[in-house]
Amino acid sequence: MTLRTTALVLASALAATAATTLALTGAGPAAAAGLRCSVDYTTNDWGSGFTANVKLTNPGSTPIDNWSLGYSYTGNQTLSGSGWNGTWSQSGRNVTVTAPAWAGSLAAGGSVSAGANFSYSGTNAAPVSFTVNGVACNGAAGPSPSASASASASASPSASASASASASPSPSASSSGSTGSGKAPALHVSGNKLVDAGGSQVVLRGVNRSGMEFMCVQGYGFSDGPVDAASIAAIKSWKANAVRVPVNEDCWNGYANVKPEYAGENYRTAVKNFVLALRDAGLTPIIDLHWTQGLYTGNSSGCSDTNSTCQKPMPGAGAATFWSSVADTFKNEPSVVFDLLNEPYADRAVPGIDQAWNCWRDGGSACPGINYPVSGMQTLVNAVRTAGANNVILLGGLAYSNDLGQWLAHKPTDPAGNLAASWHVYNFNTCASQSCWNSTVAPLAAQVPVVVGEIGENDCAHSFIDQVMSWADAAKVSYLGWTWNTWDCGQGPSLISDFNGTPTAFGLGLKNHLAAVN
Fold it and tell me: Where's the CBM2 domain (predicted)?
């Protein structure tokens, strides 16, 4: 999943100006008596276009149902693509964002973040007023390069927010998920298990640490919040034994669209420091290629941008360069796991499920409907192995890694024999029932290791992931919660409310479960 978000505190509502502002913006439903709101607006501007990030907060005492946010530009800013975390539309200069299906009601004290890309020429002036359901939210400020959260949604989630990088050590890793002392274990595949150097099974149970996939390309830093020894110790205090680290192709490869201070060698050093600090702390690091290059504007497009500013249905040509470099960097670190692409969704772009699986494995001409050179999973496996790395490789299936139906039939060739399946499951996915898990995931898990790279739910509770974890424990399947970031869990699955590890209502389910099983 990917939710990005950016925040600056703006003002509270003044209902007296609601009628005037509604006429200006055309913002949907009638004003609700007593409704209060505040809006944070920031941008990531690259000269001919920008990403607009809005964070709507409900400081009132009652929920805002079926919210609709409206604002107006004064220039020629034009919406590109469909946006994320809300339904974006534009009429003239007026922009409207309505509630996504999974977050129609904004709870009292809660907030939700949404984003979209725009093109423009000339001056990119910030909006001066906002409405929610006809009520004015005044005091809007202009964009700022200083961030705190960020959002981009797919059929499966992920999220983002603030700035920092560096790292240092602490201890422990695990057989069957328990934590001991020392570095994370060297891993390889044996049958349907991940095992350590001594042949003991290792079940990975931990968290995702989002931030390095979006902060750099948005020009804010290396990570959303701290990635130092104290933050690693906080993760370990939950009895986790693995951390998945989403990263960005543009930043790693050092493309020109990224600020030099956050690109190339600077970015690679920041990622390497964090990954090795996790390893030294006994936490298995999983490097996940999250945002990639490729201009895709078809079904379920996350953005109309060639650059790595959102999820793409499949990796492009630059992903092979990325994985060759990552593999060379970590080829002598067998505790580091490679997740080749966060959430493939070739099934949304290519006609027919069989063709989509062929695209997934083979890329290139097997991907009609994707108008950039696609690197299939076989190409990326080859890139890793040619670089001399025998590390364990995770391959997510289709439908944002929720569909593993033809994974085994399309499994790439791997001379190292170190391939495992990556599966993502949220309560709103198609395969979100135990009957589906038993019929599609369990047979695969009987033949190859399965790692649930992301588990989560969109209701700020944990009853769904409780079911997932219990099922996975019985099947000896690994799992990691999305995400160790301090966003409001009402805007997407967020495990913590501060980087000391204070759990949200959603995160409490994972924290308590890890304490019980590890």
Answer: 30-140
